[in-house]
Amino acid sequence: MMTPKLMVTDPELYKYILIKDFDHFVDRGMGELDAKRDPIAGHLFLSKGEYWKRLRNKLSPTFTSGKIKYMFPLIKKCSDQLITTIRKQIGESKQMSLEVKDYCARYTTDVIGTTAFGIEINSLENPDSEFRQVSLLVMKPSVLQMLKAVLSELIPLIKYLNLKIFDPRISQFFSNLVKTNLSYREKNNIKRDDFLNIMMQLQIAQRGKTLSPDDVEMTDDVITAQSFVFFFGGYETSSSVLTFCLYELARNPDIQSTLRQEIMATKKEEGELTYEICHKMSYLDKVTKEALRMYPSLPQLDRISVKKYKLPNTDLTLDVGTKISIPTFAIHYDPEYYPDPEKFDPERFSPENIESRPHYTYLPFGDGPRNCIGKIL
């Protein structure tokens, strides 16, 4: 039942595992889930082999800078609402402290709601909204759900049992949300610059056509699964990094002041903040990257060998099915690459400092063909 896992700590080997010899390590090697039994489990993150390749190729054009640019006004509207809500809270209660993680989680819930589903959730004003409650179900599974997840990882044969890893309420919520939304939009010819509209257009484009072997049929269940992982991957990871970033800025007022000066100077020079203007702010970019270094969403990257493989420059040969772990968190805190790693220092990501470090020592989004598809966000 228990099999050894290889922990790879040499960044030189990462380029082979993640990129150069990626065809040997296509899969993540995580628990077996049955998408037919539990539709939201059929998403990109857990997909395997050829199906993953076809699905990734299908979805990759969705996550381009051009597509994200069109979503920027939706994100900005949520940001303005966050500022309004915090100002109102401070003004009414006259308190000088806030539970920032809660506000960040509600903010990212609203962002995902509008950019993915075209829904104004407004959980900033209404923390008890249904969408918010479902998000808490996702992030705080019951003991039974966690036990099922652990068993699916430890006992591959469990996939033949009629077990659903996800809470049925989560599956039902996202299934109803997507199917109702798709039907309403098509019936009323509604188009929005959001993720669901892109999925719907892919679905419509396939109707009446014979799909090639390299294509993926965009059924309602497939769209539901991708919508779920878009929500799950964007909601918790973004809110956590944003929370930690604000925490470090509070602990380092000099860095906070420098960042504020850059933002205010940019606004004065450029006027209204836009997608392009945000990308011009180099210090903001450094601050964000340093937050991701110190607080990566995934502490490790998991892969499994799908072919027999000899690790370059070693005497080690991996059998098919050997699980591999790349310790992202440990690499990000290795003083060899990041001196005084506990210190929040955005200048680590100046061009010259980036150039001085070995490649593959900064992996908050993974790397190679199976990196995070939403990295550009």
Automatic annotation (TrEMBL):
Instruction: Note whether Endoplasmic reticulum occurs among the keywords.
Output: yes
Metal-binding: present as a keyword of the record?
A: yes
Query: What subcellular compartments does it reside in?
Result: Endoplasmic reticulum membrane; Microsome membrane
* One Pfam match: p450
Kindly report the protein's main subcellular placement as a broad class. Answer: endoplasmic reticulum
Membrane association type = Peripheral membrane protein
Q: Recite the UniProt keywords alphabetically.
A: Endoplasmic reticulum, Heme, Iron, Membrane, Metal-binding, Microsome, Monooxygenase, Oxidoreductase
Report the cofactors. Answer: heme
Question: Belongs to which family?
Answer: Belongs to the cytochrome P450 family.
Query: What PANTHER family does this protein's entry cite?
Result: CYP9F3-RELATED (PTHR24292:SF54), CYTOCHROME P450 (PTHR24292)
Q: What is this protein called?
A: Probable cytochrome P450 6a13 isoform X2
In the UniProt record, what gene is named as encoding this protein? LOC113468468
